[in-house]
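Input:
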Amino acid sequence: MDLILSSLDILARWDVVLALLVGSVGGVLIGAIPGVGPAVAIAILLPATFSMDPIVGLTVLLGIYGSSMYGGSIPAILINTPGTAVNALTTYDGYPMTTRGEARRAIALAYSSSFFGGIFSVICLILFAPVLAKIAPMFGSREIFLAALLGIILVITAHRGQTLIAAALACFGVWLNTIGLEPVKYTKRFTFDQSWLSSGVNLIVVVLGLFALSQAFILLQGEDEKVRLTKLRGSFFQGFRELARHPRVAGISATFGVVMGMVPGVGEFTAQFMSYSYAQKSSKRPEDFGHGSSEGLIAAETANNAVPAAAMVPLLALGIPGEALTAMMLSVFYVHNVIPGPALFQNQMDFVVALYIALLILNVMVLVFLLMATNQLIKVVKIPNRFLGMCILVLSFVGVYSLRNSATDCALAAGFGVLGFVLKRLNLPIVPIILGMVLGGIMEVKLRAGMARVKTPFDFIDRPIAMILFLMIILVLALHFLRVWKGYKRKKANQWSTSHASISFATTLYRRRNSLSQARGKKVRAKRSTYYPRSTGKS
Amino acid sequence: MSDDPQANSGYRKAGQILFAIGFTAMAVLLVALLGDQTVWKAKVKFFGQPRFWPAIGVIGMAVFGALHLKTLKRYRFSRYDLREARVWFEAVEYALWFLVYVWVVPIAGYLPVTMVFAPLLTWRLGYRSRKMLWISVIFAVAVVVLFKTMLQVKIPGGLIYEYLPAGMRGFFILNF
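Output:
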């Protein structure tokens, strides 16, 4: 109780309340505009928050992070375009409901599910905080290194079908982080004798380039879309009544959100996918999923809103961000000399709980705002895309230039903006670059510290948590390679029947021999070896 | 293999090969420069070597980049790849707009430059209505007032403000 009171004391300031209000309303607005998203907004606002108190700056950013998904559900339901990437699953059931004239019901259900997910996760984590405070000190350098390694492996393997390029881009991030003067031996690394590279490549410059500027370029280069909105009449409170009829789906989805949010590198998409699959499998009407099922909408929205609070756990307890948004927040901590990690949980537990209570209040504020202002809010969807691109370009200048008043930073950010533009055009992942930079830096420091007392390789994993993390890494890798191997076998099995000109004669013979020795091959051989006299139609 | 990126639905195939070749070539070049650009210190443990992490980065880029290149289905360039590369250069135009904006702000001042830049870019994007141009000017003023005047974000005053009368000079340098 004392802990909660002292946490409330931290929050009882006019600037924190204002930050909560600005963060929540701003987050909803940003989420509701397709093509902006919380990453762009946080990247732009990041340098502006450096001059604020840590709790004020973090509250603004947390506000945007926690509330953007509420706003993102509005265009997902009304115009079939997700406001933020994580609202993509909302379109599956939300838009079909709009097409059959149930837009208000869908939006009400999305709001109530999001609210439930958000509140559920915050309460879980406030209750869980004392346990975390006991576990966190058990993490030494070796454990944090292994947790960061696990995080980077999970981020890579989570990009199914793109793991190779995700791994290459994560390594690119690791390399970017090493540019400049090495902090222990003071040797230059990849500076090419350029003085502007000696201080390294700033994370925020890369973030602003890859997220904000690239998005501006995408919008500027694209075309405006005509949007037709449905008018919403009546109250949004009925969503809670409907949500109360599906307590099992809501509860399980929120739990998936909390658990997946805590695992670095996994996040909203996996939580949503698992919740949606569970809801579909356990539903009495699985055929409705994808055609306007209320259970599908509840699963998607509850799971994604349960993630932000849980994602703060690895960040605060271990100093390991699990995704791009928390990686950006990490830089706010560093700027204010608040180092997230086990020590923060031991010494400043009230600060941690204050952040969770801020998230709790934020969810209430967002809900009240949405219940009152949805009809006015939906008009932001009509802002033309190219004009929005111009706005992001102007705002990006504030973010990059205010950092160090450096034109070189701006040129670098523009370069990363073009790289981000190319990656987005090719649908290649950007997040591994950012996490490679952040986790690469953490791994370098922690490995050096951890290896100082290690004599044999086994010493590195002789502590229980280190051993558990090591086994988890092995398990994740084994499961990934198993999946890749199965995919390879499946592809080969499909391939033997289709031969084309580019396949050499020797390859055809080799495949034929393989296929003949397999079960289906035997069946085909048996069929072909049987003599069927040609039917002439004359008996 | 199941890691074939083109197996994914909704994938843009054009340009993939260009990017993969460019990325791998850059990675190989960096691997070649590893010895020249990093140092191997005597009497320092292997994991503490200044070269260790850059090596992980560039070798990882080269190996995974090459494997990604290998998994791409198509190995030949087509005109669609070149068309995609032309689109990439369209982004360079807007990057240049941004850099010109960055270059002019410390000279002509944040507020005046933003008030010119926003409607100019709006015009370039094809908006010709007075309404949109005025909205862009209002947006420019709002951004400057919010960030420079209210939040006191660090953006230096323009050189042009030095020519203002003494009373206004300080006010403009501080707020606009």
